[in-house]
Write a structure and sequence with these properties.
Helix content is about 40%, strand content about 15%. It has about 140 residues and is α+β, with helices and mostly antiparallel strands. A three-stranded antiparallel sheet has the order 1-2-3, with helices on one face. It is elongated and about 80 Å long. The mean pLDDT is about 90.
Amino acid sequence: MKQLLVFVLFAALFCWLMFSPVYKHVLIIRQALLQQEADYLLEVGASGRYGYIDGGMVAASRDRLSAHGFQPARLEYEVSSTTGAAADNPYAPLARGTGLKLTIRYPYDRLLDIDRLIGVTPPSEDDRIAAGGMKMSEYVP
């Protein structure tokens, strides 16, 4: 009986040691892709040509991220400005010097559930991976 218990515990530990790095790698790649997309949207949106991030830019971003395996409906975008003005209105772009903030969130998708094998509690279903940043608008009316 003792040998069976040792075998089960060893098998669980062995499974965790083999597969945990793979899932952590997927998590790191997802985080990097989200941050790269946030940086790109901020660079384009804060440029002298736009001064906003509108629904069309967000839709294009969803398409780009879906090409990497993200589910577009589960991506959450939050666009705001440092002054409180609408940062997604193409008819009222943010003036030069106003901060354009963007946050993109995506659920963990139970990637870290294998950590339960060693007693680590994975993130809840409501927790999200997030990437974002802020860039000053360069738009001059």
